[in-house]
# Entry
Amino acid sequence: MGACLVGCGSSQVIVESTFPTPLIEPLPVKMGVIIPDELYNFIHTEDIPDQSLWTIALGDANVAMLEPLFKQMFRETTDVDAVPVAGDASLDGVIEPKLEKFEFDVPIGERDEFVEVWMQYQINVYEPDGATVLQWAVAGYGKSELDKDQEDAVQRAAIVAMREAGATISTKFSEQPQIKEWLEGKGYGIPVTAGQQAAASDSAGGVASTPPPAE
Amino acid sequence: MGRLRLLGIAAVVPLIGACGITARIEPYKQSDAVIAEGEHVVVLARKQHSNHEAEEDFVQCISDGLAKGDDGLDVHASKEFEDKLYPWFEPSTAPLSTEDLTSLLERPGVLAQVKSTGVRYLLWLDGSTDRTASGGGITCAAGVGGAGCMGLAWWEDDSRYDVTVWHIQDIESEGTIHADYKGRSVMPAIVIPIPLITRPQVHACRGLADQIRQFLTQPGGYDAGNEPGVG
# Structure
C-alpha cells in the first residue's frame, strides 16, 4: 500500500503490490534476465508548483511485476549480470527491462476526477554474445479516482499502468518482427501459440516449424 | 429573528419539491436464458474510455446488490477475476465484442481458467455519474450580533450506466440494460444553510441491481410494470 513517509509539504509514495502471473503459454527459449540496479531502485522525484514535492518509489513494484512475467513468458529463465554472457551456452538470449519514462498528473480543479500515470519501459533483448535483437518501448497508462488520499490514488494509478505495461509485454512480445525473426533463426519458427510450439519442439529435438499466429 | 426563520421555512418547503430524482431504465433481453444453480456472475467496469469509467465503488455496489438477500446471486469478486485471467481483462486487452471473446477463449488455458471460476455471466458496466449543472450562490456574513447566510445553491447529477450481459460460455450477448438517473439537489440558506441532497448514484445502483437480478432469473427478463428503484 502507499505510504506517506514524511507528511506535510511533501508527498511520498512507495508503490507496492503483488502482480498476478500471466495466463500465457511460454516461448520455448531459455532466457537470461538482467534486472538493472536503476530498475530495482527507481525513484521518481518531481516538484509540482503550487502542490508539493512528490517522491514515488517504484523499485519493488517493478521487480514484483517483471519477475513473474518473465518466468511465465519463457520456458526457463536465469538471472544474469550483463551481456555478453560467459559460461552458459544453453541460453538462447538475454532480456533486460528498463524504466525510461514516468509521468503523472494529480488534478487541482474540482471537476478533475482522476489521477493519471503514464510510464514507458524499454525492453531490450540480446543474443548471449551481446548483439542487440530488440529494443522495444512499451507504455502503460493508468488512472484512478481521486479521493481524499492523493498518495493512495497515485499508487493505484501506477499499479494500473504497470499492469497495463505487463499485459502488453506478455501478449505482444512474440508478435514483434525482430522476435519472430530471432525465433526462426534459432529454429523455433513463428509460434501459433508458444505452448504448441514448445510441445512440437520437445518431440522434434528442439526444431519446430509452425505457421504464423492467427490473431 | 423568529419571524425570519418562519419566513425561511415557508420558503424552503417549496424547494423540497424542487429536489428529487427522475429515473429511466431500459432493459433489452434477447434470449430466455436464466442463471442456473451454482453459476456465478462477475461485474467488470469498461475501462477503455479516457475521460470516464464506472467508479470502483459503483461496481462494488452493484456486486453487493446482486449478492445480498435470500435470492442473492453468486457474485465473483471483480479484482480476483481480473487477476485470475490476467492479462486478458486489462484495458488494452479486454474483449470488446463477443467475437473478441471467442478469440480469447480459444487461447490456451483461458477457457479452463474461466470454468474454474464458475463464472457464466459477464456483466460489463459502462458509464459514470457526472455533475451536469449547478448554479445559484450563498453569501455568508458575520458581525457583532451574530452570523448568517442567505442565498440558494443547486446542482444536478446524472448517473448514466449501461450493463451488457454476456454468457461467457455460449459466447452470446444476452442483452443490455440502460439506466439514467438524474438528481437535483438544493441548498437554501436562510441564516443557516439547509442541504437537501439527492444521490442518484445510490438509486441507480439499487435500480440496476434489481433489474439485473430480474434479467438473469426470469426467462422474459423484465417486468415492464416494475417501478425502478427510486427512493
Q: What stands out?
A: Residues 150-172 of chain A form the longest helix (23 residues). Residues 1-7, 192-215 of chain A have pLDDT under 50 and may be disordered. Chain A has one domain: 10-19+26-198. The interface with chain B takes residues 19-25, 111, 141, 145, 160, 163-164, 166-168, 170-171, 193, 195-196, 215 of chain A (CB under 8 Å).
